[in-house]
């Protein structure tokens, strides 16, 4: 079964004015679709991988045949990262913004002091990514939360971490609306974080 673009859980214009419809449509139908296509092209060379999920491939890149390892890392990473990214955002009318609730809220307080300190640290990491990459809130093997950044389409799941929230800071994610002003994009993005989904992700990996 080839990999497929997941359904976008809202319309292209649903996250306006924080993310514009043109960016969302291009990002989903062109960028994410290309990662899916190129991942499928790579995996097609090794039919023995057909039953593997993208998570399984990324969690053990060393087990991926050497001739497609870079392609799986980049395009599999791109597919996995964007699939998570779409789901951890929501329009204001659909529960976006605000702050974390219940268990993940307590875990954030435990690891970072309070939500504001977490937000500042995450925003600083996002602003500090040089070139193209991502910043993540991830659960480590001891069930603690960490803020990590990854270059290109590398994914924290390849480092033994379970990402529960991620922010794409590639220029393709913000340039049409924000041009070079990545910090403005980061500030805006907090208004559309889907904390219910982040909480679900946290509970799924810490149960
Ligand atoms: Mn992207």
Description of the molecule:
This protein has 207 residues and is mostly helical. It has two domains: 67 residues, Orthogonal Bundle (Helix Hairpins); 115 residues, Iron/manganese superoxide dismutase, C-terminal domain (minor pseudopilin epsh fold, 3-Layer(bab) Sandwich). It is 48% helix and 10% strand. The chain contains eight helices and three strands. It has a three-stranded antiparallel beta sheet with strand order 2-1-3, with helices on both faces. Helix 1 packs antiparallel against helix 3, helix 4 packs across helix 5 and helix 4 packs across helix 8. The radius of gyration is 17 Å and the shape is globular. The two termini are 30 Å apart. The model has no long low-confidence stretch (mean pLDDT 96). The site of manganese (II) ion has 7 residues, from helix 1.
> What's the level 1 CATH class of the largest domain?
Alpha Beta
Number of helices: 8
Most strands sheet: 3 strands, antiparallel
- The average pLDDT is 96
Count of individual domains? 2
Q: What oligomeric state is this?
A: single chain
Compute the CA-based radius of gyration.
17 Å
Helix content: 40-55%
Number of strands: 3
- Give start-end ranges of low-pLDDT stretches: none
What's the overall geometry?
A: globular
CATH homology superfamily of the largest domain: Iron/manganese superoxide dismutase, C-terminal domain
Alpha-beta classification: mainly alpha
Estimate the strand proportion.
Answer: 5-15%
- Bound chemical compounds: manganese (II) ion
* Element-by-element helix/strand order: HHHHHEEEHHH
CATH topology of the largest domain: minor pseudopilin epsh fold
Question: Distance between termini?
Answer: 30 Å
Biggest sheet strand order reads 2-1-3
Do you know the CATH architecture of the largest domain? 3-Layer(bab) Sandwich
């Amino acid at each position: 079964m080839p990999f497929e673009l997941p359904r976008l859980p809202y319309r292209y214009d649903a996250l306006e004015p924080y993310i514009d419809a043109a960016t969302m449509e291009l990002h989903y139908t062109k960028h994410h679709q290309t990662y899916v296509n190129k991942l499928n092209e790579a995996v097609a060379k090794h039919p023995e991988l057909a039953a593997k999920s993208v998570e399984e491939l990324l969690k053990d890149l060393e087990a991926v045949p050497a001739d497609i390892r870079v392609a799986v890392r980049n395009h599999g990473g791109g597919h996995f990262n964007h699939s998570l990214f779409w789901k951890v955002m929501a329009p204001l009318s659909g529960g976006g913004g605000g702050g974390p609730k219940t268990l993940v809220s307590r875990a954030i307080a435990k690891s970072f002091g309070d939500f504001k300190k977490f937000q500042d640290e995450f925003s600083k990491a996002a602003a500090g990514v040089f070139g193209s990459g991502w910043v993540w809130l991830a659960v480590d093997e001891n069930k603690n939360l960490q803020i990590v950044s990854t270059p290109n389409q590398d994914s924290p799941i390849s480092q033994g971490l379970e990402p529960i929230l991620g922010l794409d800071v590639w220029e393709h994610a913000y340039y049409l609306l924000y041009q070079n002003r990545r910090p403005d994009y980061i500030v805006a993005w907090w208004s559309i974080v889907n904390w219910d989904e982040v909480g679900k992700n946290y509970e799924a990996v810490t149960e």
